[in-house]
Description:
The chain is α+β, with helices and mostly antiparallel strands. It has two domains: 19-57; 68-221, Glucose Permease (Domain IIA) (Distorted Sandwich), CATH 2.70.70. 16% of the residues lie in helices and 37% in strands. The chain has three helices and 16 strands.
Amino acid sequence: MHRYPPFENPRNTAFPIASAGYPIIYACAFVTTIFALLGITFPALIGLLATLFVCFFFRDPDRLIPLNPGAVISPADGRVVYVGTADQTPFGHEVCTKISIFMSVFNVHVNRIPCDGTIERIAYYPGKNFSANLDKASTDNERNAIQLRTESGHVICFMQIAGLIARRIICNIQENQTVNRGQRFGLICFGSRVDIYLPKDSSVTVVLGDRVRAGAAIIGYLAENRAER
Length: 229
């Protein structure tokens, strides 16, 4: 069974766009219009293509969210570039399962909450801009880490990581906020990565190279036993 996230009803538009994209779209369209009015053909064509690409990049399609009990859904669209054990999360040393998802400029870049819970911590780290598909991007790049606790006590961390040409991380949630699985919470502009850290006893349903969609793809299941609070 699937549903749309609570308070996020489907929008009545054939091509929904994330609100963060409108200023860039308007700027590209304005410059394109000026070139067109001046009769400067080639720059106008380049501007038109740029405007269309920015519209494409900031697309924000509605997604039906799986309701499977204990499921963890992908927080990002893209390709799985790492699945394995890690000895720490962004918030401390703890053995866990790490899944990394690389988003190229052709993927939807709107990020979604992986499971129901309460946001406990948010930490922003300035950094470099290595290519997001490299392992060192998790520790060296500009990033925004989020820690979530489910009602059953499981602690999950996920982290937005800027990439080679990404220069802006947007996060629209706050600490102590209750969130829902599949809820939109932010985006990263122009190529990036999202890492998610699950409890070590979780089961993973994706493998290296899999293509996933934010809010729609199940990437794992939390253990049935109640986590310690």
